[in-house]
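Appendix B. Chain record.
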Amino acid sequence: MLTGEDLQRLIESHPLEIVIGGVSALHLLGALQLVLRHPGFNETVPAQTARKLAERLEAHIVAASPGMAQLCKEGWNPEATLSPQGPTYLLGATDLGAKYIRCLVCGRDSFNLNDIEHKYCGFCHKFHEDQRP
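Structure tokens predicted for this chain:
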């Protein structure tokens, strides 16, 4: 159980410094941008921290490679990451045979058989269109 003393130690601890390469920074930026799209998350204190980190990563990436500016900018737009003709979901099964649907908009998996049958994302609250070859 977290105690006030534990929290105080964390507050008084030294800042954490992380050294990562440019490609890892780009991967982390993309992951943070995806998390920050989740409904209801943006108004939280962790979201504010994640957004500050994402903005710093974006500034570093663009300063190192200005050609990446458009890609970084598009990462903030949920519609920009979806090809109009590309898939928005994947159907799959685990090694143990449990079926799931993976939403390619939010990245979450659902094992709910109704979600799978109706191609529905319970996290985004949206139905996926049928995918045609």
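Further analysis of this model is presented in Appendix C.
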